[in-house]
Amino acid sequence: xxxxxxxxxxxxxxxxxxxxxxxxxxxxxxxxxxxxxxxxxxxxxxxxxxxxxxxxxxxxxxxxxxxxxxxxxxxxxxxxxxxxxxxxxxxxxxxxxxxxxxxxxxxxxxxxxxxxxxxxxxxxxxxxxxxxxxxxxxxxxxxxxxxxxxxxxxxxxxxxxxxxxxxxxxxxxxxxxxxxxxxxxxxxxxxxxxxxxxxxxxxxxxxxxxxxxxxxxxxxxxxxxxxxxxxxxxxxxxxxxxxxxxxxxxxxxxxxxxxxxxxxxxxxxxxxxxxxxxxxxxxxxxxxxxxxxxxxxxxxxxxxxxxxxxxxxxxxxxxxxxxxxxxxxxxxxxxxxxxxxxxxxxxxxxxxxxxxxxxxxxxxxxxxxxxxxxxxxxxxxxxxxxxxxxxxxxxxxxxxxxxxxxxxxxxxxxxxxxxxxxxxxxxxxxxxxxxxxxxxxxxxxxxxxxxxxxxxxxxxxxxxxxxxxxxxxxxxxx
Length: 478
Hints:
seven-stranded mixed beta sheet; about 35% helix; FAD/NAD(P)-binding domain; 3 domains; 18 strands; alpha/beta
């Protein structure tokens, strides 16, 4: 992006969008397609928000993308992926999507394999938990009957509903584990509506990956922004949302300039957006600030993972007596997490990534990482890098983490502190607020929320959220 795009060309717009995350960019494209004059503001020098990439030593590292969820094969209609392709006018081939081979949920003494064909997971559950057959069908019926497109679904406990269907606590936890790691903003439990969205996204639909990772999607979306005429202002954020008489009266930008808009849509996060409003008194630790964040370690290997027996695409693991999804007391909870092997997707035409990659992700404590001095921060990263690798490798068919380290050429690691620095998310909360603003409205009648905090989840969900909010309030009015 050149510097000219860092200065708004006008003083007034139909719509100003705060943040060039996936949802913000999708909203901007949708509105521009219908002739709206749109300005997209992004404080950083790269688009994508929580789903972007960075470069070190000439290598590109994805952040956020273990997999694109909601994958369906060509020809399937009416799913979230199909909706965003149609409404953003993106050709499916542009995304270069390659489905997963096979993944696992791995707990002590029991594995459940799954793929993009739900019948595999269903058969695995019946093999390991044959007495849960009737309960499983009851749960699946509730999931299929739930209208996850409604914006006013009730906040009911997923644990309560799932527990009424399934009597085996191990199976309950094994089904919760991937869903929580892939999009849950609450500790211990989640809304059943969120459970349904994630269950369908991961298990009924499935995982895929562009061959070159997240930057493929970012390139496609950036091109759409350019084609649609959206005015993009990079390295320029909003310093203050000036509120008057229950409306956004103006936006004061980081460079001191003031602009106005008929409507403002923010994908910066719900509490983050409210903290910008002149009429909101920011309180310490408000209830809608998320507590959940993660560390992720990356190993770049000199061999393909499959050469030393690593066949899985993704492994969700838990080594605790009971799976816990909550901010840990220590810097990292290495007992559970996600193992992602990007090499193990079913790449078309026999393509293969040149270098091997293994990523380990686990829950982490933002406050403790943020309190470290520079020297301790570096030391703790090194210590937890190895601790997480050793814990995760208990669920891989290798002797120890040493096997991976012997094949490793380059490593990197990011922490909740990194998330906060580059996304602005309070407390480094990757999945945002535990309280979702499903209608997308705020206390200001022309200010709206899209993205994770609106309630749609994952990359496809975030883009669908942007489209939904744009359609509801940018195109149809209030």
